[in-house]
Design brief:
By secondary structure, this protein is an alpha/beta fold. It has three domains: 12-119, no CATH class; 132-151 and 304-335, no CATH class; 156-303, Dna Topoisomerase Vi A Subunit, Chain: A, domain 2 (3-Layer(aba) Sandwich), CATH 3.40.1360. The chain has helices at 12-35, 44-51, 57-73, 78-87, 96-111, 136-146, 166-178, 192-203, 219-235, 251-254, 269-276, 288-300, 305-334; strands spanning 158-163, 182-185, 209-214, 241-246, 260-261, 279-280. The strands form two sheets. Strands 2-1-3-4 form a four-stranded parallel beta sheet, with helices on one face. Helix 7 links the parallel strand 1 (158-163) and strand 2. Helix 3 (57-73) packs across helix 4 (78-87), helix 3 packs across helix 5 and helix 4 crosses helix 5 (96-111). The longest helix has 30 residues, at 305-334. The radius of gyration is 25 Å and the shape is globular.
């Protein structure tokens, strides 16, 4: 667990009175949280660190709740944090003004070192730079760390995960990375080039193909999914199964999702309400821990555990062999 460090202690002359004041402020904060139905779950040191940021009043209590939510659900998006805060009763709605407030607050908490930057994800922006190394030794070290055996080459199925939002890919990528499964954020309606590239890969796979999709429960979310499936089916020479992991209709009751109203301005509005009703929800509304659980459960359903353990043992031996080669290379180079 990451420790949230408090600010520096006051100078000697003021240290004793400052400690009494801090203790009073801490007790007051914890009392306020409990009175509003929140059970404090961070350490006293962590709450003290939040107090010493200088936040006051409603922002102090909101910062405490937000920090704990992000700690428990990380990695999480800012919008996902907003939903958790609203569901906990600390903000009245997910309107833009409240989203902006949470965005500003989490920005402050990150800048001040209360919330580690890696806990909040935003995969929309990326830095592009060609790979380079300081020398051959540095390169060989990268090779050693990067080696990973393709377990799926010997497994009976092929698995591919799609997600509507790029930001959510940062939420579920720890799972897809762990199991070496392809994760594709679609970022709106996908191009025919994007679909054709995936379809070409699928067409060369001689095993059952299983696709899993995560998207918003609204007219656009369902139509984006329909469009992606149609394009893949058009270009792929193989059949494939398709499963929607969320948002699903029963998620509204299970997670007490705050239903958003369908947009009447959307040209797919009538078809959507005929099939799904008028309530909508964003994928961010489902707890990140649940999204990761669903992805992991879906992936593991295609993994024979005995074979997976055998492949892990083979990979370990191969890594050790690679390490010996690299060490030998280093000795030859030094000589």
């Amino acid at each position: 667990m990451d420790m949230i460090h408090p600010a520096a202690a006051p100078s000697n002359g003021k240290r004793r009175s400052a400690r009494r004041t801090h203790k009073t402020n801490l007790d007051s904060l914890l009392r306020e949280l409990r009175q509003k139905g929140w059970t404090p779950g961070l350490t006293r040191e962590s709450y003290q660190g939040i107090i010493e940021t200088g936040l006051r009043g409603k922002n102090l209590a909101l910062a405490s709740v937000t920090t704990e939510i992000v700690h428990d659900e990380q990695p999480i998006t800012v919008r996902g944090t907003l939903y958790r805060v609203v569901c906990a009763g600390w903000l009245p709605s997910t309107d833009a003004q409240h989203y902006n407030r949470v965005k500003r607050l989490t920005g402050v908490l990150r800048e001040l070192g209360i919330i580690p930057f890696r806990w909040l994800v935003d995969n929309v922006r990326a830095n592009l730079k060609p790979s380079s190394w300081s020398g051959l030794a540095d390169f060989m070290d990268t090779v050693q760390r990067a080696y990973r055996k393709d377990f799926w080459a010997g497994l009976p199925d092929y698995v591919h995960v799609f997600v509507e939002k790029d930001a959510i890919s940062g939420v579920i990528s720890p799972v897809t990375k762990e199991f070496d499964v392809t994760l594709s954020p679609i970022r709106g309606y996908c191009s025919i080039s994007f679909a054709h590239e995936i379809a070409e890969i699928w067409s060369r796979i001689e095993k059952p193909i299983h696709a899993y999709y995560m998207g918003d429960f609204d007219a656009s979310g369902f139509d984006l999914e329909r469009d992606l499936k149609a394009k893949l089916a058009r270009y792929c020479t193989r059949s494939f199964t398709w499963t929607r992991l969320g948002v699903n209709d029963d998620d509204f009751e299970t997670f007490k999702l705050l239903p958003l109203k369908a947009k009447k301005s959307d040209r797919r509005y009538k078809k959507f309400i005929q099939e799904h009703g008028t309530k909508c929800a964003e994928l961010d509304a489902i707890p990140p821990t649940e999204l990761r659980r669903r992805v992991q459960e879906a992936i593991e359903s295609h993994i024979p555990q005995a074979e997976w353990k055998r492949l892990q043992a083979v990979e370990k031996v191969e890594r050790e062999s690679l390490e010996k080669v690299i060490l030998k290379f280093g000795k030859v180079k030094a000589g």
